[in-house]
């Protein structure tokens, strides 16, 4: 390819054979044209989701009498938050259930895009998100997903050697990439031998080349590349990618990829996608777990504070995947 973007070889290992059924949920019909889904077991809070009524199935409506009062006020709050029809908030009682649903969500999109356009462009962050993707490398998905059509990117990367413990490439490689047969040429790591600024330019050049070859689509409304799916984590301060609260990079409107040399979260030198690029994605999943992030979740979803995660959107669908502690302030 024309870009000097590093294409890293992947070692393949045998898939594991654990089953990963999707967590079940029932639904309750709420006023204001919203649906919220609830657990099958009334004895424990499992999950609820909020979406515009058009996206709920008839099963969800049929199950509408199976309400659980315990979670109703929280659900109503989330319904208010989810009134943007492109935004859904899904809450799970455990990170394990979240991981199960996230795998199903990702696999469904993979099927859809592989069938529709013969490719699936996926972007990941670093951090705990990668662990939450673990069900994808287990049965049934490890065998059913057409990995040969995946194109794998990073929304941000630390400018450190690929074998360094701080490397987002290493993080994804060790627990994900090394376990699935994505063609090595479809894995787009940064060239970390460059300065942060040059590595960001290089990555943008790489993306431009992929637009030319139609591997990457372009958003008709923004003119930025339109990734099929972006999987993002969020820091306790509400940062996403390497876009930190109050940092001028949050306002970048022209560049696709930019650099930061004063990241408040170490290491200081990084490259990051900009908001216009992130928000041009077809689907975005924001995956957040733990009580330490509850305030930032509240700030982002209830707009009680100005955190970068609150600026994330998607062209088709933004889904917040939260565990119960992360939504404790909603
Ligand atoms: O390289 C990075 O630092 C990440 O891409 C960053 O945006 C991360 O996703 C969040 O900080 C959440 O990380 P945790 O989930 O580990 O808190």
From TrEMBL:
EC numbers for this chain: 3.1.1.31
InterPro entries in alphabetical order: 6-phosphogluconolactonase_DevB, 6PGL, Glc/Gal-6P_isomerase, NagB/RpiA_transferase-like
Single biological process term from Gene Ontology: carbohydrate metabolic process
Reactions accelerated catalytically: 6-phospho-D-glucono-1,5-lactone + H2O = 6-phospho-D-gluconate + H(+)
TM ranges: none
Pathway: Carbohydrate degradation; pentose phosphate pathway; D-ribulose 5-phosphate from D-glucose 6-phosphate (oxidative stage): step 2/3
Domain annotation Glucosamine/galactosamine-6-phosphate isomerase: ranges: 94-320
GO cellular component entries: cytoplasm
Alphabetized SUPFAM superfamilies for the sequence: NagB/RpiA/CoA transferase-like (SSF100950)
Molecular function via GO: 6-phosphogluconolactonase activity
Keyword terms of this UniProt record: Hydrolase
Source superkingdom: Eukaryota
Protein's UniProt keywords contain Hydrolase: yes
Family, similarity comment: Belongs to the glucosamine/galactosamine-6-phosphate isomerase family. 6-phosphogluconolactonase subfamily.
Protein name according to UniProt: 6-phosphogluconolactonase
